[in-house]
Design a protein that fits this description.
Helix content is 44%, strand content 16%. A hairpin with a 2-residue loop joins strand 7 and strand 8. It has one domain: NAD(P)-binding Rossmann-like Domain (Rossmann fold, 3-Layer(aba) Sandwich), CATH 3.40.50. The protein is of the alpha/beta class. An 8-stranded mixed β-sheet has the order 3-2-1-4-5-6-7-8, with helices on both faces. The radius of gyration is 16 Å and the shape is globular.
């Protein structure tokens, strides 16, 4: 059995990633800030659920302790939870964006590392964005150049860099960041763009299901490595 935790998985890309990995035979534990919504999603998926708020240390610790008690290890972590951080650009909004998109990765990953080290093939996938790629946001042929997402771009750049640094400092654990593609989810609805979460989840699933010879320290989309 492959034990997998996906943060922010009660909807969108996280939900579809959970569904696909469940089909592949993973024992999936989804996390959600709202327990009721998480339980509804878990019931629809045939998955397990833990309450987890990536901005709350106590919540993160409790969630990983629950998984430790139930499973004794963690094979795959998908750091998916995030916010768009659009609208007003001010200090509180910036703090929320970075606390969720970057610091949240640190909180969850650090809490998960002891369990990942008990796995024979530990894997971490960080759902980042090419909105955080200097190459993409300055490329007139890319959709990112037209998106006014300063805080999202900055926090996702941090998420990708965290992935690269974890890959360097955590030998034996595969760490990869992924650009899932512009996706029509609740945060992006205002822009009227994007493909379905079902399509975008494919690349997340591919990296989450890599074998021991898989990549580490990369930033990829469905076509391969992305410049950033």
């Amino acid at each position: 059995m492959t034990i997998t935790l996906i943060t922010g998985a009660n909807k969108g890309i996280g939900f579809e990633t959970a569904r696909r990995l469940s089909v592949l035979g993973h024992v999936v534990c989804i996390s959600a800030r709202d327990v009721e919504r998480g339980e509804e999603a878990a019931a629809a998926l045939g998955a397990r659920v833990v309450q987890l708020d990536v901005t709350d240390d106590a919540s993160v610790s409790k969630a990983l302790a629950t998984i430790d008690s139930a499973e004794g290890r963690l094979d795959v972590l998908v750091d998916n939870a995030g916010v768009l951080g659009h609208g007003v650009t001010d200090g509180p909004t910036a703090l929320r964006a970075f606390d969720t998109d970057a610091v949240g990765i640190v909180r969850v990953t650090e809490a998960a590392l002891p369990l990942l080290r008990k796995s024979s093939e530990p894997t971490v996938v960080v759902v980042s964005s090419s909105a955080g790629s200097f190459w993409a946001v300055t490329n007139p042929d890319r959709p990112e150049v037209r998106l006014p997402l300063a805080l999202c771009s900055a926090s996702k750049a941090a998420a990708t860099m965290l992935t690269a640094q974890y890959a360097k400092s955590g030998p034996g654990i595969k760490f990869d960041a992924v650009e899932p593609g512009t996706t029509a989810t609740d945060p992006t609805a205002a822009f009227g763009i994007g493909r379905t979460p079902e399509e975008s989840a494919r690349v997340v699933v591919r990296l989450a299901a890599l074998d021991a010879d898989g990549t580490t320290g990369t930033f990829q989309d469905e076509n391969g490595p992305v410049p950033w």
